[in-house]
Amino acid sequence: MLLITLHLELKHMEFKTYRIDKEHMVEDKNQNVELTDHEAELYDRQIRLWGLESQKRQVQPNLT
Predict the structure, then answer these.
(1) Per its UniProt entry, which superkingdom is the organism in (predicted)?
(2) What's the predicted TM-score (pTM) here?
(3) What is the mean pLDDT of residues 34-47?
(4) Terminal Cα-to-Cα distance of the chain (whole angstroms)
């Protein structure tokens, strides 16, 4: 039951993206990405082990 509860909580969380300004990192509000049900199920173990920030870095494309 714990895994099901965790899964339901994870699928409603949002990833936030950041852009680098000349002086500091600023949250880019136009780039918020929500986890789909499929992604929450697929990445459930990684998110529980490494956290949302680590998974966010893996999922988001690196455009530099």
Answers:
(1) Eukaryota
(2) 0.40
(3) 77
(4) 41
